[in-house]
Amino acid sequence: MNNTAMNANASSPPQYRIAGRLSKEDLTLIDTGGEFAERIRKLFADSRPKKIIETGTYFGTGTTTIIANTIKALAIEDATFYSIEVNPRHYSKALAHITREGLNVKPLNGLSVPRSLLPSRAEIEQRYVSSVLADQLIVDHEPDQRTEFYFRETDFPHLQDDLLGQILAEFGNKADFVLLDSGGHMGYVEFQYLTSKLRSPCWIALDDIFHVKHHLSFKDIETDPRFVIETVSREKFGFCIARFTPAARSKRKENAA
């Protein structure tokens, strides 16, 4: 490579990689026999969670099925597993799948967070079109469609909101395992909301950490003393599992003092 080409590459601005251009396969599908499934089986065998929450059910055939089948296989009979899906059509398909397979899941249709926390079109445009969070991150949709498509993913004004908050309230703001896997523009919103609500240690899993969905969430996990990372994987767009202890930050400050 000549010096001119090298200089051109060095000065190239950061850019996203668009998911749909990377593969002709359906990238929403989850391998129920993949690494994520293996990690969940090991974690659940060790911790035997009873209060379980998932955001982003989609059709219920991926992570929802993995979690439900793991609960069944390990005979965690006192587990309560809620899964939240905002899109009514996806929810209907998920409900049919869950019913047909007899899965121990309580599916809910609505927004996971308070409606006031939803990003506006202008915020989506700024974060995911006009600027780039990090070079070579994965993002959904072509630039001219991205703002509108992301906005529509959560634009259901007739649906109930803050389902995540309601479930946590039912659980006494204590959960054993939470998987955050909803819209590409919603990852960090859900992550911040969840961690602000939890009042006891919890296993948190993030799907798509090398995607704009959870890039910022994962950066927080890497630097926040309240987290201890158990797993980081590059499977598909990456996932991580970490132990969150709300009191860890205050204890560290006390020790430093």
Q: Briefly, what is this?
A:
This protein is α/β, with parallel strands linked by helices and 257 residues long.
- N- to C-terminal distance: 54 Å
Please write the string of helix (H) and strand (E) elements: HEHHEHEHEHEHHEHEHEEH
Identify the strand order in the major beta sheet: 4-3-2-6-7-9-8
Number of helices: 11
- Name given to the CATH architecture: 3-Layer(aba) Sandwich
Overall mean pLDDT stands at 91
Oligomerization category of the chains in this entry: single chain
| Biggest sheet details | 7 strands, mixed
Label this structure with key terms.
single chain, about 260 residues, alpha/beta, Rossmann fold, seven-stranded mixed β-sheet, two-stranded parallel sheet, 11 helices, about 15% strand, globular, disordered C terminus
SSE map:
Layout: H1 3-10, E1 17-18, H2 19-22, H3 35-47, E2 51-55, H4 63-73, E3 80-85, H5 88-101, E4 106-109, H6 121-130, E5 138-139, H7 143-153, H8 163-170, E6 177-180, H9 187-197, E7 202-207, H10 215-223, E8 227-233, E9 239-244, H11 248-256
Parallel strand pairs: 1-5, 2-3, 2-6, 3-4, 6-7
Antiparallel strand pairs: 7-9, 8-9
